[in-house]
Amino acid sequence: MDVPYEKPLPIIPDYERPFWEATKKRELRLQRCADCGHIRYPSSPICPECWSSEYEWARLSGRGKVISWIVYHRAFTPAFAGDVPYNVAWIELEEGPRLVANIIKVKNEEIHTDMAVQEAFIDITDELTLLQFQPAT
Amino acid sequence: MNAVDPRKEIAVVGVGSSRFGRDLQMDKLSLIAEAFKEALDDSGLRKEQVDGLIVNLGVDCDLLPMLLGMDVRYAAQTWPHARLCATVVHWAGMAAVHNTANYVACIWCYTSSETRNLGSGLGDAQRVGGGPHFERPEYGMIHPGAGVAMATRRYFELYGSTSEQLGAVAVAHRKWAALNPKAVFKKPITIEDYLNSPFLIEPLRLLDFSPVTDSAVCIIVSNADRAKDCRKVPVYILGLQGMKSGREHIIMAREGLSLGQQRVTSFSPSMKDIPVYGMAGITPEDVDCAYIYDAFSVSVLFTLEEFGFCPVGEAANWIQDGRIEPKGELPVNTNGGNLSECWAGGWAHIVEAVRQVRNECGERQVRNAEIAQFMITPGVAIVFGR
Predict the structure, then answer these.
(1) With contact defined as beta carbons under 8 Å apart, do B247 and B263 qualify?
(2) More confident residue, B139 or B144
(3) For a disulfide at B220, which of A71, B14, B148, B240, Cβ 3.0-4.6 Å?
(4) Spatial contact of B144 and B295, defined as CB atoms under 8 Å apart
(5) What ipTM was reported for this prediction?
(6) Considering chain B, what percentage of its residues have pLDDT values greater than 90?
(7) CA distances from B121 to B23, B264, B342 (A)
């Protein structure tokens, strides 16, 4: 990376490291409970359904749809000033969990409810690759 | 236990607030003292009689009593988020009902120095699992309005409500503020003004955000017996509900929007789902004035639906034609709310609710106001009555 990354980095607890190891390999993996099969988000050391501490990091399809989205017309932190107006979307993955990301390679005005999206991966530092989404092909 | 009416156990015996304004350049302690003095005067109590103190936001509960020269036997404080205001009032009431304190002062103070932790800085937004308002700073999802803006978009898409309809909230709050000498933002606005105000976090506009202003509030709570020693007729807490939390509950929004990890995708509350009404012995029709936590305008819509004032999906329609304005069917935030009186969390709303029930509100007094209900979506409610 030549240009220092100015944006806030995610706060990564130890149990979430495998998520980031996966994104570096361009994989979307979430925890799937070994006891009840529930796939959880946000990441957590125990299953919210059955409280088991046994899980594996399951590879997901990377596909989902837009549930909602917002567009920032003001940068509330300076690092995002150059991106304004930028979108943030709530994506419902095919497997059920919902997570927040930016939708890239799209005009903000084109985003719509139930829009099909798929995973995208953006290297932000030498160690970290951020999961994003883009319109599904 | 109040043998006459078991609902009337917890009493508000004094309310007070500081000057309100933008960037007052005052320290928190001085503002708190201003509010506390007014509450003491209102209650007829001396400082020495106040033996409980719970802080929602302001100065820590170990330091404040020392600086105010108090001797407190029930001190506590909450996670410093404004949505815990009703929790604090309830907590104070429980302490008084159990006689672990006679008179409990509830304290709020917000000054502009805190703004740095809100809009321009990251504060506790950087938290494992996401910030307390659903912030995800790595994606630029920051500011307490972020999650509620997502909820607004979802709501508009589900029910066909429009930005223009939402503008009725901001317009109504200015009309109430015009009748309130303490309000910071009294200038009337029209729907055209609202639609011309820029998007900040689209679909929310500048006029959907309560402006940052400085304030302190003090509310003194007691039990039915001790309330008899105070100056004014007590205002009782006839019923209440706590703050909801968990997968189905989104801060400042409501259930059934398919946001976050909500599983339930529809929402149709019945009266048994809203226990505050049974507890207080009322229905929504009995509420003379409603106090709705309005950090952001859209929460008014979610709250009206959650508490059964209008059908689910109908709130944007329901608030049109002056329904929540002065002389309207359901006065909402008669002080002007956070949107137009002052940013004071829910505290100035509670002060106003108490004053309305006491018939002290002058030009903005709601006629025959007997029942005032304070609400924060999701879950929180307090019914005040005499």
Answers:
(1) yes
(2) B139
(3) B14
(4) yes
(5) 0.96
(6) 85
(7) 17, 34, 22
